[in-house]
Amino acid sequence: MTNSDQTLLMISAMYENGGNTVHRFLDGHPQLAVYPFESQLGTSLVSDALSSMYPNKYRWPVFPLSGSPAQDYAAIIDEECRVRTRTPHVSKFRHVELDLSDDERGALYRQYVCDQGRSTGNNVMAFFRATFDAWKNRQTSGQERVFVGYSPIIGVDADRIFADLPNAHLLHVVRNPWSAYADTTRRPVPLPLDGYLLRWNVCQMHALRARALRPERVHIVRIEDVMADPRAALGPICQAMGLEQPETLTRPTWNGQPLEEVYPWGTIRQPTLDANRAASDSLSEADRAAIGLWASPYLDAFGYR
Q1: Rounded distance between C-alpha atoms, residue 243 and residue 292, angstroms
Q2: d(Cα 227, Cα 289) in Å, to the nearest integer?
Q3: What total number of domains does the chain contain?
Q4: Residue 2 pLDDT exceeds 50
Q5: Residue 86 contacts by C-beta under 8 Å, 6 or more apart in sequence?
Q6: How far, in Å, CA of 246 to CA of 88, rounded?
Q7: Is 73 part of a structural domain of the chain?
Q8: Rounded to an integer, what distance in angstroms lies between the CA atom of residue 80 and that of residue 268?
Q9: How many whole angstroms separate alpha carbon 46 and alpha carbon 54?
Q10: Is 60 inside a domain boundary?
Q11: CATH, residue 163
Q12: How does the average pLDDT of the chain come out, rounded?
């Protein structure tokens, strides 16, 4: 299989908006090769107006003009997978069985880039292809046609994604800002309300613009709709990509194994409407009012008014 045989679907979502949850609901689809964790593709060379707002690891990668495939591979941050493969005892995913050597993956990556040519698009596709080829205990159907990655907020780089991979698809996940902010406050060092909502707004602005420019390739789904009926919410997106809408869409899995809760892949433990409502209800009236003001431009666009 060469890079040109595959399509890429990148999932985007603001923090605590359900990107990891959707990633896990897609995991069991027989035609999808789903990355095991967040696919943090960014490099240290990402530098633009958004660099102070979002971490480089979540951005579309920038590679040096002068460089080698080995240097490119080392530059991709991919923190979650590299921690799990190289120092599993400190990984939050140490409880799952992952037979994947980062060194072997790197060797495959270098081979694929040398075969296909060095470019940002080829580098990214070679990275995914090498991951799945090096993952020894991956449950595979043999029908996989689409690589699926998830990098939070990567939708802000939609223009660059499609410039490098014109046949790619982008799936943006949005969650009502009250529940989303309530979950982010549970982090050890959470963003302040104004900082979180600024980032939430910018992320949604880019997603809506990307869909307006490329409605056939940019899809937006509300996590509340996935919680209510995942197959009904995600099935049309699969159909738009020429894929089946299998029963596997009804449950979150990792490497095909059912998950009792999505955590630690994401902060949403139980993807249910009751849990989502409980998160929102945990906020103070002052916070709820402030969030409503910050997010006001987008509440109607996503049906959250």
Answers
A1: 37
A2: 25
A3: 1
A4: no
A5: 102
A6: 33
A7: yes
A8: 18
A9: 10
A10: yes
A11: 3.40.50.300
A12: 96
Tokens of 193: 């309300």
* pLDDT-derived band at 176, boundaries 50, 70, 90: very high
**Which residue in the block uniquely carries the two structure tokens 């916070």?**
287
Residue 237: inside a domain: yes
Q: What is the DSSP string of the chain?
A: --GGG-EEEEEEE-TTSSHHHHHHHHTT-TTEEE-SS------TT--STTTTTS-GGGSPP---SS--HHHHHHH---HHHHHHHH-GGG-TTTTS-----HHHHHHHHHHHHHHH--SHHHHHHHHHHHHHHH-TT----S---EEEEE-TTGGGGHHHHHHH-TT-EEEEEE--HHHHHHHHTTSSSPPPHHHHHHHHHHHHHHHHHHHHH-TTTEEEEEHHHHHH-HHHHHHHHHHHTT----GGGGS-EETTEE-S--TTSSS-SS--HHHHHHHHHTS-HHHHHHHHHHTHHHHTTTT--
Q: What's the whole-number mean pLDDT along residues 231-239?
A: 98
Report how far Cα 221 is from the mean position of its chain's Cα atoms.
13
User: What burial letters (b/e) apply to 253-291, b meaning 16+ CB within 10 Å?
Assistant: bbbeeebeebeebbbbeebeeeebeebbeebeeeeeebb
304 in a structural domain: no
pLDDT in tens, 99-129: 999 999 999 999 999 999 999 999 999 999 9
Any bridge partners for residue 34, and if so which? 148
Residue 148's domain comprises 3-299
